[in-house]
Every structure is written in C-alpha cells, then in structure tokens.
User: What shape does this take?
Amino acid sequence: MKHICPHCGAELPEKASFCPHCASSLQPRQSMEAPARLRRRSLLPVLAALLVLAVALVLWGFLRPKGLPKGPTETVILQEDENGQCIVSAEVLQAWFPEVTAMDFSSTSITSDNIDDYLVETYHMAALVSNRGANGAGTDHSIFNARNNGSNRHCLLLFDTNLHLMGYFLGQPKNLGDGQWQLDVTLCDYDFTKLYEKELAAFESEWESLFTNYIAPEDIPSSGAMWYLKGYNTGKASTLQQSDAQLYHLWRVYNSSARENQCRELARLEQDLPNEGRWMCYLLLDGNNELVGYTMLDTNGNGGETS
Assistant: This one.
C-alpha cells in the first residue's frame, strides 16, 4: 500500500516520519500543557485584580452612607391658624427642644438616605458657607401651608450649634385633624464639619466663574437666555456680595443633577421678583440649560449694577 504525503502528495517510503520531498513532519501534533509554575504566574494578575476589588468592596462597605442618623423620636404638634398656615421656627421648636439655636424647614423632592444630601440643599448651609461658618440659618422662620402642601414631602433639620445636627424630620406631616399636624422628629448627634469644609472649598474655587457676565434687564431678551435659576430673597445691595447666601444656593443648583428640574421659563421672571427692599440674583440659561450670565433685580424688576 502506497503512502502519500498529506502536504505535497509525493509517494513516501514505508514508516517514514517525514517527507523526503517537502520535509514536512508526518508525526501527529500533540498539545503540551504549560508547566505548573508558568500556570501560577499567569494567574497572578487575575488574583491581584480580585484582591484589589475585594479590598475596594470592603472599604466601600465601611465608608458608604450607613443610612440616616439613628436616635429616639420626639413628637412635635403644629397648630395651623385660620388661614391654614403653621409657623415653624427655632422659637416654636424650643418648646420641645430647648437646645435648638437654628432650624431649616422646607418641602423637598430628595428621597436619599444620606443626611448630607439634605444638608447641602439648606439655607443653613448656604448661610454658613457665605459667612465662613460664623452664622447659620438662625431664628428665621418658615411657614407650612397645611391646606396647600400638607401632602408634600418636607425636611426639618434642627441645629444646636452651627455645625451640629441634633434632630431631623423627613416625610409628610401627619394630619391629626382640628388643624393639628404631627412631625416625628428623630434626635441624633451628627457633626457635619467635614461636609461644610468640603462645600466651602469647592464654592470658593468655583463660584466666580458663574458670575462674570452681568446682563442688564433690557439686554436679557437678546442674550439668548430661555431659562433662569432664582436665588434667595436675601440680597441687600444691587451688586453681588460674596457673603450673600443666595450665591452658594445658585452655585449648588447649577452644578447639581437637578439643574434642569429647577429651571423656570424666562416668561415667569416677573413673578419671582424679591420682596421690597431686597435684591435677587438670577442665573440665565440658554435652551440647553447652559449658563449665559446673571442678573440682579429689585422688587420692581429694575437691574443692579456690575461690581
């Protein structure tokens, strides 16, 4: 029986191990397993990556928010007046919490279980940053209109010092009937100095970039602005003051993921003018919600002056 080379087709001698014509091997190929020491070396990068991932997960478990601060609960009962309004102030709350020196109360769309997410959105934080920690929200009061927003989610934060949270309420006030509304306040011991320092550092390094292009009221229609973000009703001068809490508020809203939700149509600007004797700052945005400039308006819609 003739033996033919599978590579060149030439006739082969019997029991040939290679073809004398094309020099190709006629032995079947066998796969060789890598030595154990080489296999171990090839696994080292994989094992190292898995170790780094495991350490990262452990650290994340320690450092990630552990939920809202825990503590005992104290019931607060607010009484609405004949107009359906409840006054919420540090003075009112001192009946339950004598240590309260400042408070912040407002409706909120936040549903986070990290208390820092609520703190950075408050007027208290804005006041602290603008005053470099000297003053917070103080004894300013808020009005809870029970008949109009009793079903809204609210945030109440209680402070016994500027940088220490002693209690909070998050959720919907409970209607007890007869004009009474219940807030179940959770007492806690939370020092947020590091959070304040982080916000202050970021604000000081970035805030001026938002307030470089002043746009007078008469120039707004031709500026390309279509939306605006409103500041606080806190301006006491026609020019920007770095100590004005509304600047931190505008900086934070502009840089937050909720910017688009906070934007208002330019046509509504006249409905958002400040109180008598105050000046409000507004960030003006284009159709893509990007910054065009800022303006300062008084209660009559008159413009401020560039500083």
Q: What stands out?
A: Residues 36-63 form the longest helix (28 residues).
